[in-house]
Amino acid sequence: MSNLENKRIVLIVSGGIAAYKALELVRRLRDGGASVRVVMTEAAQRFVGQLSFQALSGEPVHTDLLDPAAEAAMGHIEIARWADGVVVAPATADFLARLRAGAANDLASTICLATSAPILLAPAMNQQMWQNMATKDNVATLIKRGLRSVGPDSGAQACGEFGPGRMAEPVAIAAALADLFVPQTLSGIRVLVTAGPTHEAIDPVRYLTNRSTGKMGFALAQAALEAGAEVILIHGPVSLSAPSGAAAIAVVSADEMFHAVMENIKNIDIFISCAAVADYRIESPATQKRKKNDTSLSLTLTPTRDILKSVTAQSMPPFAVGFAAETENLLEHARSKLERKSLDMIAANQVGVKGLGFESSDNELHVLWKGGQQHLAKAPKEVIARQLVGLIARVHGQKES
Ligand code: CTP
User: Fold this and answer.
1) 3-class state of residue 228 by DSSP
2) Which pLDDT score, from 0 to 100, does residue 67 have?
3) Which part of the chain is CATH 3.40.50.10300?
């Protein structure tokens, strides 16, 4: 079932050429099972007629804040209250500026101010306007306030220029809107996620590490938040910003990650061990920079502690999910890790293949647990993360009941 099923969506159309694409969006939203009420700004009505939106939505179109007849039928506050979600598509530079300022000088901006429903923006404008600091600043502020944004895409523009500013495709806007209504399967559940690589110092300027970027772990933290969980994210050195709402703890080495996890594991319901933790560290890192000479150099490596195993060895372990990054015999190695580390679930992924896993935006997982298994086909890590979190919530729920 689509997340949009039975949802009440207010579609605000502001005045840009992309307004014609909003017609297609109405169809997509209705295909997903949503009821749609369209609100048009005055400028939007110059681009597309009300009648088209009325025909596609099956509802009268709202345009006027001060028309007594329209207000009597369904007033601005009623529309704001009716909405489960608001989508502004297209969101012009002017509309974004008015939204940021908290303006309430027409029906569309007033509804945005008066609603407690989540708001999704689909910006569309000339590429220079999109890249202007004023617009960038407006969008950043609105996102900081909790609004979501999708697009814009890059490409040829109606004005003849080329660059970022094309409104996202209706199908992508509908998908982003559906993401606002993720079932709260982890409501009240505390989740700890580890992510990224670790750095093991050789000397003050060099270290041993691996190809993990942290993307998968950060996407899992985001997906768990969206599903209603309280999330702690303990991560190694990465160049990503932590999802807002997660308590993020940055560490460097495997040893630091071990201590951070152990200090925070109490009261955790679900532990997702996504970090690519170094298995070995340098036994005695040099305190000063090593100088080169002409002879070969041997470094003595000593095993690090297995964080995941230490968590499951506790007397009351949380529901534990491990990852198995393998270059060969994927399922065999994953099954053995599931047993060896006393896990509730393991997500196995093939590494060493271009376009998947480490250093890639996509992933493909084979998920195994005691009572079953599921293949999650290749998709962007954000999508895979939502699917895996859904699976974790289901199997964790079954274990608890
Ligand atoms: N892991 C951990 N602490 C370590 C090493 C690994 O918590 N010191 C966790 C990883 O986060 C992952 C799981 O253990 O969830 C499996 O990691 P992986 O590197 O695939 O396996 P290893 O146990 O290190 O075994 P091998 O390197 O031999 O495959």
Assistant:
1) coil
2) 79
3) 190-286+293-400
